[in-house]
Amino acid sequence: MQKAIHFRGYERGQNWVYSGEERARFFLWQSTPHYFFPIFEKSMRIPDHLKANDALCVEFMRCLSPEWAAVREANYGLPLSSRLRPLKMKLKHFALDLPLPLRESLRFLLKGKRRPYVPPAEVLAHLRDRLKSSDALGSIMCADAVFRRLEKMSRYEFENFYTLAILERLSKQRRFDG
């Protein structure tokens, strides 16, 4: 048995799932069947080449529900049952190991220039109102600079920014309410 996998499963995994060292970070009880010892031990005895590229998981899903196995998975953009999925997994893992500048260049060559995210109109209207107000977000940020940057933001960047804008509003409400 491989030492790293043994450590993750028997040592680190058990401490994370149950009441061990990670209990301060993860507050929900883990109900996955993977750590039910009879299932866990049997799955650890299956040779690695049969489990590579999620093959065992895919086969399990096919047996459980062919419809579920045909649903497109968000991580790879392909259904679990797709024959291209293992290849795409290998390529994605290879790309993630590349240095960031090379990875971004490769992404640009394959997908082209990133398109900025266009938030819903009501969200933009809410942001405009908050940025115009001198006692709200507008007191700590330049509206023109924010809207110039919004034109270039990815969805991820926008959602992070909007979360901060909402937190700013909630912090002001909390000061006045309590």
Written account of the structure:
With 178 residues, the chain is mainly alpha-helical. It has ten helices and two strands, in the order αααααββααααα. The protein has helices at residues 3-17, 37-45, 48-51, 55-64, 66-69, 85-96, 100-111, 121-132, 143-150, 155-177, and strands at 72-73, 78-79. The chain is elongated. It starts with a helix and ends with a helix. The mean pLDDT is 79.
Put the structure in a nutshell:
The chain is mainly α and 178 residues long. It contains 10 helices and 2 strands; from the N terminus they run H-H-H-H-H-E-E-H-H-H-H-H. The longest helix has 23 residues, at 155-177.
What global shape is seen? elongated
Query: How are the strands of the biggest sheet laid out side by side?
Result: 1-2
SSE topology string: HHHHHEEHHHHH
N→C terminal distance: 57 Å
Helix content range: 55-70%
Radius of gyration: 23 Å
Mean of pLDDT: 79
- Ranges where pLDDT stays below 50 over 5 or more residues in a row are none
Alpha-beta classification: mainly alpha
* Total of DSSP H or I helical runs spanning 4+ residues: 10
Largest sheet descriptor: 2 strands, antiparallel
